[in-house]
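Progress against Task 2.4 (sequence-to-structure conversion) is shown through the following example record, which the project officer requested during the mid-term review.
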Amino acid sequence: MNPFERLLQDELNRLIDRVAARAGAEGVAGLKADLKLRLDRSEERLTSLRSALLDGYAAWTRALGEYEDLWLLADLRRQIEAGPAEPAELRAA
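Structure tokens generated for the chain above:
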């Protein structure tokens, strides 16, 4: 689990704790049908948004990697174009 997933899970756990403290022993069973339906829709929306956030974070980490790879490629190209290092430069490195 990556740090972003942990953050989302921690937030969800805190929400569940708050809801459980208010719901009491009856939980969802004691709710009227219309309120239960709205809660179900809200839960589906949370699930969908969580998935979208995780997908976005995965794209973010891929973009970071691609950006770093391009800078590595640019540095390699610069080194190749500069030609072989002089012996004095090699000793200093």
